[in-house]
Amino acid sequence: MARDGAGVHGGPRVALRACRSARTPMVVGIVQPIVVVPTAMLDAPPAERRALLAHELAHVARGDCLLALAGGLARAIYWPDPLAWWALRRLRAHAEDAADDAALHTGIPSSSYAAQLLAVARAQLERAGRVAADGLRARVRGVLDVRRIRSREPDGARWGVPRLIGAALVLATMVTACEARSSEGSEVVGSAQQASGAPGE
Questions:
Q1: Is there a contact between 27 and 60 (Cβ–Cβ < 8 Å)?
Q2: pLDDT at residue 70 above 70?
Q3: Which of 21, 85, 98, 132 has the fewest CB atoms within 10 Å distance of its CB?
């Protein structure tokens, strides 16, 4: 199946593809994003389909793929730095939370959406093992959190948190790079001073 779907809140139109080999819904691409869904999802109840599509379209509207790419590159460059790993984990967690809020905003019961997340977890366990599905535990708890259920409207301030974390991650890597260059420069100056002072000793 191939069709076009409208973006979230008047955003860009996003292509929708159904794929038999897909285990879970996902967004592919940055410039021209495509939402890929498992073929089996087409047989799901309308409320579940709307929630899952709202989740993926929220990722598109927020630019989460680009943020994840930038964060992944920063982590690859500064992989020994625990801050880079922590920031990327928080970036992904907040992105999923915001997308879950968009899904809940469609009106689907929290218990039904939590059941969908558990189904996704089972699919991820089959494909990539336990590590890939562990992050869904916190999402299920969050979806069923009474304090979160109190409002279905996605929080604009909450949606800005991932961007702040992404900016902090980029800033941290820039500071680390500047410190490294400064340290190298100091070593060069120190070596030059020692060399120039050697004849006079």
A1: yes
A2: yes
A3: 21
Q: Report the DSSP pairing between strands 26-28 and 2-5.
A: unpaired
With H, G, I as helix, E, B as strand and everything else as coil, classify residue 139.
Answer: helix
CB-side neighbour CA atoms (13 Å) of 160: 3
Q: Number of structural domains, the chain?
A: 1
Domain, as residue range, for 166: 46-187
122 in a structural domain: yes
**4-13: pLDDT as tens digits:** 454 445 556 7
What is the torsion angle, in degrees rounded to the nearest 10, for the CA atoms of residue 100, residue 56, residue 24 and residue 151? 20
The tens digit of pLDDT for each residue in 135-160 reads 667 777 777 775 555 454 554 444 45
**Does residue 59 sit within a domain?**
yes
In tens, the pLDDT along 81-117 reads 888 888 888 888 888 888 999 999 998 998 888 888 8
170 CA to centre of own chain: 15
Strands (E) in the chain, as ranges, are 2-5, 14-19, 26-28, 34-38
Instruction: Give, for 131, the enclosing helix (H) or strand (E).
Output: helix 130-143
Question: CA distances (Å), 156 to each of 160, 176, 187, in order?
Answer: 7, 31, 47
Residue 148 falls inside a structural domain: yes
pLDDT, residue 118, reads 82
pTM of the model: 0.67
CA distance 100 to 86: 21
Backbone angles phi, psi at 14, to 5 degrees: -120, 130
